[in-house]
Amino acid sequence: MDSLTHALAAAIIAYSIGFPQFIPFAVIGAVIIDTDIIFSLISDSHPSLYLFVHGGIAHSLTGAVVMSALAYTGITLAALVGLINPALLVRAGPAGFAAVLFGAFLHIAMDLPATPGIPLFAPKSDKKYALFILPGPSLFMLTVSLFFLIWLALGVVTLAEGITTYAAILVAFLLVRFVAFLASRPALRGTMRAIPQVNPLRWLAISDSGYAWTVRDYRIGLGMTDPVNYPKYKNTSPEEVAPCLALPEVMRLRYYSYIVTAEKEGDTILFFDPLRVSGRLFYPPHFKQVRIAIGVCAPGG
C-alpha cells in the first residue's frame, strides 16, 4: 500500500479516537517504514543483504520497532536543535513513542492483505506472509488518497467532514476485494497459492506437481483456463541444483519470486521466475533471474 494512504489512515484513526495531538507521531510511524526504499542503494550491490530492500526487513515486527525507535530519536533531536517546536514533544510525553509505534504496526497490518507479502519474522526468517487479497500496491487507493489530500489542502472539506466519505470509499473497495476473495476460495482450494489480479474477478492459481509448477488463470463465473506447466528442472536435477540454493544471489531471487525454475545451459544454471520473466506478473519488477556457474555451487567453489 502507498505511503500516502498509510499516513492518512494513521491520522484519521488518531483523530477519530480522540487523540489529535498524536497525529504527527502516528503519521511519522506509518511513513517511516517505507523509507526502506533507500536500502536498495546498498543491497542491490550486495546480494547477501537482500532483506534490506523495500518490503524487506523494515516491514517485519522487529523492523517496525527499530524504525519507530529511530524515528522517535530523530524527532527528539529535531526538537532539541529547534527544527521543530519542543512543545510538541513535551505535550506528547512518552506516549509520543507509543503513537509512532502504533503508526508503524498499522503500516504492517495494512500491508498484509497485499501480494507478494512481507517478512513478518525477519531477520529470523525471510518467509513472506500475505492474505493474498490485494494485487500489490493499489493505484485506486493512491488516487482516492491523493484526491482527499487535495480537497483538504484546498479547503473543500475539513478533516472532520471528509473522513466519513474517504473511509467509506476505502472500506467499500476492500469489501469488494474481500468478497471476491471469499467467492474464489471453493474453486482455488487445493492450490498452493492464488495470486489476485488487478481485476477482482481474476486470480492466478499456482500448484506444485512435484517436478513442475502448474499455473492456471481463474475467473469468477468462468472457471479455470487450461494449465501451463513450468518444469522446475531442465537439463539438471534437484541434487545438482541444491548446493546453489544457499548462494546469496539465488536466495535473493527466491525472495523476490513467486516460483523459481532451474535450467542448465553449458556450465551454468539459469535460475528464474517464469511468471515475472514472461510478464504474467509484473511486481516485484527486479531480480527476475540469475545465472550461476556450476563450479560456484560445488563445495569449495
Q: Describe the biggest sheet?
A: 5 strands, antiparallel
Mean pLDDT: 90
State Rg.
22 Å
Helix content: 40-55%
User: Could you give the count of β-strands?
Assistant: 9
H/E element string?
HHHHHHHHEEEEEEHHEEHEH
How many distinct helices? 12
The low-pLDDT segments are none
**Helical/strand content category:** alpha+beta
| Strand residues, percent | 5-15%
What would the principal axes of the Cα set say about the shape? flat
| Assembly status | single chain
Separation of the first and last Cα atoms? 41 Å
Taken together, the total number of domains comes to: 3
Task: Provide an overview of this structure.
With 301 residues, the chain is of the alpha+beta class. The protein has 3 domains: 3-137, no CATH class; 190-229; 234-297, no CATH class. Helix content is 46%, strand content 14%. It has 12 helices and 9 strands. Helix 4 (61-80) packs across helix 5 (86-92) and helix 7 (139-154) packs antiparallel against helix 8 (159-188). It is flat. The model has no long low-confidence stretch (mean pLDDT 90).
